[in-house]
Amino acid sequence: MRRVLAKRSKKAGLPPGTMVHLGERPAEKTRIQVFDFDKEQWQFHEMESVEDCRVFRDKSTITWINVDGLQDLALLETLGKCYGLHPLALEDILNTDQRPKTEDYGDYLYTVLRMFYYGTDAKEFVSEQISIILGKNFVITFQERAGDVLDPVRERIRNGKGRVRTSGADYLAYALIDAIVDGYFAVLEQIGESIEALEMQLLDDPSQDILREIHRLKRELLFFRKSVWPVRELISSLRRDMPNMIQKETGYYLRDVHDHSIQVIDVVETLREILSGMLDIYLSTVSNRMNSVMKVLTIIATIFIPLTFIAGVYGMNFKYMPELDWPWSYPLLWGVMIAILIGMVVYFKKKDWL
After folding, report:
1. Best label site of 100, 153, 198, 285, fewest CB within 10 Å?
2. Is residue 1 assigned to a domain?
3. Does residue 107 sit within a domain?
4. Residues 6 or more apart from 37 whose CB is under 8 A from it?
């Protein structure tokens, strides 16, 4: 089950800027990939050492450095010194439970948000924090593990499609944020399909498994909402408060992402309401089923009350009971009991109780 609140106890009492990794620690090795490009050409490099990134520091081309894996603190510290990253920014990169936000550090912007996508098993979406550093001519992204939703941006860089190779680093940062927000829709579509299938099962045969699945999806959507709700504020801040780093033309594209983030929030709220309604349906169905069972049992008990009374009367061990000496008393008693049974069944039918 996904953890909603991360443990921060091991950071208690440490000074600000202390580099302590909070989050999962994948076994994979930290990987550094670099795209360096302009409108005429592009290059891709798989870096063996963080020192190799220094050559891109002052180039006139646009550089995108992507770091997969946060467990190598020495590597991150070296890269931070190379590009002049503030210790607080490095601390936020390692704290993988950050609320989506953007901060202006003068020479660069630090933006953090969550990225969602479905893994290979397609049963539960993957959630990881991605940090984006936007400088004058470079963008650095920090991910918790390999695998993301940024392949469309990589393809545009390779093929020269769109404006990514003809615009500045701010447009590249926009393209990355846009791909992440578009990934939200893909996850929500999958969740929506799961809810539709679950709704059909709920109407046919409600069970404990369906109840557990409803609670799982509600928890997933709660986590999703917590992660995407601040994205709208983040993008508004980029458009409104960062004119020195975001060009006016890129601001128009960010406005489109802002609209997408609002749509995502609307879809999340709609799915949460549907799940709440499904939970009510489940409880009502179970209650109705219990009421039906109790109605049948009550009718059976009601029918047998007078029959039990007659049997009880003639089961008493009194010596002087005149009916005991009648030759037809036994079949007559059966006839009376059967008549009472039939009469009560007919009465219940007229009342629509059966």
Report:
1. 285
2. no
3. yes
4. 43, 61, 62, 157, 165
